[in-house]
Amino acid sequence: MRKPVIVGNWKMNKTPSQAKELLNAIKEKELDSEVEAGVCVPAIDLTLASEILEGTNIKFGGQNMYFEEEGAFTGEISPLMLNDIKANYVILGHSERRDIFGECDKLINKKVLSAFAHDLTPILCCGESLEEREANKQEEKVKSQITADLKDVSEDLVEKMIIAYEPIWAIGTGKTASADDAEAMCAYIRNLVADLYTKETAEKVRIQYGGSVKPANVKELMAKENIDGALVGGASLKADDFAALVNHRK
Ligand code: PEP
C-alpha cells in the first residue's frame, strides 16, 4: 500500500557546518525501514546532504527550485542541479514561498511539471489561512490550489507525487490541526485527486499533514486513514526528534 513518508523541512536553518553535524547525527540513528525518511535542506547544504546520506535509506531534496534548466535566473537553483547531486524530492508551493515570496499557482504549476520532467518527486504544499478556515473556506482554497498546480500533469505522474496539506495557521505556531480535522482535509484532497484523475490514482498518491507535527502528536495523526506522512519543520531540526517521528510505529 502507501509507504508512510516523513520529511523534514529545515527551512532557512543550519549553516553548512551545522548541517554537517545534524546530517551525521541523523545518519547514526536507527530508522524504521518501513517508513520513508527524508530531509529537505537549504540549497547551500544540498551537496553535503548528498555526500553524507549516500548509501543510506534517507532521501533528501530541495525546498524550492526554478522550472528552467539553466540561465539568467539569479539566486535560483534548477532541476538539473538537483539531478546532478541525486536529490529525490523538491518541496513546491510551500506557504512561505507563496506568502512571503509571492509565488502564484501558475508558477508552481510550471515547477511541478518541471520536477516531473526531471524525475524529481514534488512535495506539493497546499493549505488555508486562519481567515479562510474561520470562514469555512478551507476546501475551496485547497481545491483551487491543487487544481491549478496540477494542470497538465498526467495521471501516470501524479500517482508518484506527495501532496502536503499544511494549514498555514498551524505552521510553526505550535497549533496542530486536530487529527480529525487533518484527516478530514487529507480525505478531501484524496477525493479531489479522484475527481481530477481516477479513484485508483487517488489511492496511490501519498498525502502528508504538516503543521507543528512533533513526537508527541505524530502517532495520532499517522493513525488516520488518509494521512500517509508528515512534512515537519521545527521538530526535524533535532536528530532525536526526527528519529522519533520516523520511528512513530515502534
Ligand atoms: C513546515 O515547514 O512545512 C512545517 C509544517 O513547519 P512546522 O512543523 O514547524 O510547523
What report would you give on this structure?
- It is a single chain.
- By secondary structure, the chain is α/β, with parallel strands linked by helices.
- The protein has one domain: Aldolase class I (TIM Barrel, Alpha-Beta Barrel), CATH 3.20.20.
- Helices cover 43% and strands 15% of the residues.
- It has an 8-stranded parallel barrel with strand order 1-2-3-4-5-6-7-8, surrounded by 6 helices.
- Helix 1 packs parallel to helix 2 (46-53), helix 1 packs across helix 12 (239-246) and helix 7 crosses helix 9.
- The longest helix is centred in the C-terminal third of the chain and has 18 residues, at 179-196.
- It is globular.
- The model has no long low-confidence stretch (mean pLDDT 97).
